[in-house]
Amino acid sequence: CFVCHQGGATITCLEEGCDRSFHLPCAVAGRCVTQYFGPYRSYCSDHCPGQEVEVAPQAGTECLICMEPVDNQMSYRTMVCPACQRAWFHRDCIQGLALRAGIGSFQCPMCRDQEAFLPEMFAMGIRIPIRAPLWEDVQTLNELVERHSRCDASECLCPGGREQAEEEGPWQLLLCCSCAAEGTHRRCSSLRSHTANWECNSC
């Protein structure tokens, strides 16, 4: 292995005439690329594919996933979405996202593109498992569908407290029509009985 200089089972670079070989676990440290689709091709750091988009990150650009600075140019470590060409991220960060998201939910963190994004990430050696995202467990789904059920007015006037809500009348709870993350009783925000929508101060 040209990375760790140890023996054992190795992968040889697919480039014709190249005899460099490496262990699969050493690939990232050696800036090698293994394409996890089709015949599972591997390339050493000298012959690995690179992104073809001709863009460079602006000074101070941060990775959309970890919010740490990316390199000042496209590199093995620094990648960009081929669709929007504005979403920059570290290879390790996008690999982590791919492992959590699975093929059905893996997409550009900014523009949500999959059509150009998925093939590019596959070609760049990002391993994308064919399964549902890890966040689709029962607890997470319950949290996502749970409706906000509390009055968030600065002063709640309801005798039963912030958690009490009725189907209609002054103690009917309205949720913010923009974010649905805050609520208010009609009376607590001086809303008339025919008012159908309410927007919280944050929105």
TrEMBL record:
GO molecular function terms noted in the UniProt entry: zinc ion binding
Presence of the UniProt keyword Ubl conjugation in the record: no
Any one GO cellular component localisation term in the record: nucleus
Domain of life: Eukaryota
Cited SUPFAM superfamilies: FYVE/PHD zinc finger
The keyword Metal-binding appears for this protein: yes
UniProt keyword terms in alphabetical order: Metal-binding, Zinc, Zinc-finger
Database matches in InterPro entries: EPHD, PHD-type_Zinc_Finger, PHD_PHF7/G2E3-like, Zinc_finger_PHD-type_CS, Znf_FYVE_PHD, Znf_PHD, Znf_RING, Znf_RING/FYVE/PHD
Domain RING-type: from-to ranges: 63-112
Pfam families reported for this sequence: PHD_G2E3, zf-HC5HC2H, zf-RING_2
Domain PHD-type: 1-48
PANTHER family attached to this UniProt entry: PHD FINGER PROTEIN, PHD FINGER PROTEIN 7
Protein name per Swiss-Prot or TrEMBL: PHF7 protein
Species of provenance: Galbula dea
Taxonomy of the source species: Eukaryota, Metazoa, Chordata, Craniata, Vertebrata
